[in-house]
Amino acid sequence: MTTGPQDNLFEQSTMTFGSHLEELRGALIKALTGLLVGFLIGLYFANFVVEIIKVPLVSALEQYYLEKSKKELEAEFHGIVPPEVEQTILQEGVVPDSVKVEPFGFLNELAAAYPEEFGHLRQQFHRLRPAEVHRDRIGEMSSQLVASEVSVASEVSVAGEVSVAGNGAVPPTAAQHVGSLLSEDDRCVVESLIENPDPTDEDVQRFVDVLNSILDNRAFHEGIDIGKVGMKGSSLDFSRRAVKELESAFDPEQSRRLNRILISAIFPAAIDAPKLSVIKLPTWKPVKVQVIALSAQEVFMIWLKAALVSGVVFSSPIMFWHIWWFVAAGLYRHERRYVYVFLPFSVVLFLAGTLLAFNFVFEPVLSFLFGFNQRMNIDPDPRISEWLGFVLFLPIGFGISFQLPLVMLFLERIGVFTIENYLTRWRIAILAIFVLSMLLTPADPISMLLMAVPLTVLYFGGITLCFWMPSLKRPVEIEEY
After folding, report:
1. pLDDT of residue 18
2. Ordered mean pLDDT values, 10 residues apiece, the chain (481 residues)
3. CB-based contacts of 452: which residues, under 8 Å, 6+ apart?
4. Do residues 98 and 283 lie in contact, with contact meaning Cβ atoms separated by under 8 Å?
């Protein structure tokens, strides 16, 4: 046993305590200078680094939306997705979607773009369709249309005296004005439907064609005092605005629209109010993932962080050199030989850890996390700044933790631990590894396991390295009294 406490803890060392502090300060300054140089180089490669960093995130998001689309189709097809549909999703990278379109507007746009091929499909807007006319009211409407003969001029004078009542009653003067615009053939069609309580589909179509011929007649809205037609709502307000537009420049389509509004106001119980009809059009859309930033300065900070990440990687040989050289300054001459052996392996292990995290850890971690989005039916919308923080922390944590075998070998060579210590305390070591992995990874079990399992293998690899690597001269034993 020793005779008493030593006054100088560094009596057996090659350096004094003050020299150690001075050496530490110098090593830190040199390492930070190397990091600064790496950071400046990283500024040039920052855009490229951001693109590289986005790859696993975009890939995981695309896979998420493809899998989500497959599950939705399984529900639609009762568990069995047609093979051609699944093949299209997987090979083409597109997912089924739908849009709402106005069919007649779509046909007109198609006819305008390709008149030779689709010109015959051109349609007129604001026309009545059989579904908009109540079949059981056709006989009543027909009798009102042919009730009496009045001229357009006389109708103008009396139309303002009557309005559509709230109970759906039809003002006879307005109906008569409509009837006065019928041609002889149209009047015959209308008269044939007066006593027909159950008109056929053909009869309904003929009646609709008669009404549409009136919609094409400009004299219809010109013969009615719109302000006196008692229809409350936005459609009539639009009619009044439309009249003012027609007074300045006649537009056939605008005239037809106005007539359509008025005829539904005159016969509210028999003709539906005009409304825009849209249909669902199936489409396929590519899975286009966008990584977003929510503020202007956030993009600048992303650029700086990307430069820092690349700077750490670029300057890692310099930083490890100065860190190991600081350790070597406190060792005996024969012990410093380990530094030259460990340094290249240290750099290689650091880069191996970062590459492992980037190539093999990000994808399963993201798949695990996005799996919760899929089960909870919440689509992810990740911000690039949050993702970059994840990328910054995880690879560096992997790189540092992968120094474990060299640290074990170094401590064994300088006599701090023995191989027997490593073997007898492996359970405690593995527990420490899992705790360390929990601290160095995000809050998910997958990334923790993906770090802890390789570190466990590296721990036993470090023991093997201690057996396998030839030993240099052991440090001088301190004499005990």
Report:
1. 66
2. 43 58 77 85 84 80 81 77 79 82 83 85 79 88 72 38 42 72 88 85 90 85 66 56 64 81 84 83 80 78 82 79 71 66 77 80 80 81 73 76 83 83 90 85 77 88 80 46 35
3. 433, 434, 437
4. yes
In one-letter notation, the amino acid at residue 36 is L
What are the b/e assignments for 453-471, b being 16+ CB within 10 Å?
ebbbebbbbbbebbeeeee
Report residue 172 as tokens. Answer: 């006879």
Position 20 scores a pLDDT of 64
Retrieve residue 408's tokens: 């074990």
Using alpha carbons only, what angle is made at residue 287 by residues 76 and 306, rounded to the nearest 5 degrees? 140
Rounded Cα distance, 377 and 223, in Å: 58
φ/ψ (deg, to 5) at 278: -125, 150
Q: Judge if pTM exceeds 0.70.
A: no
Find the length of the chain.
481
The reported pLDDT for the residue numbered 431 is 92
Give the whole-angstrom CA distance, residue 479 versus residue 73: 79
What does the pLDDT read at residue 441?
75
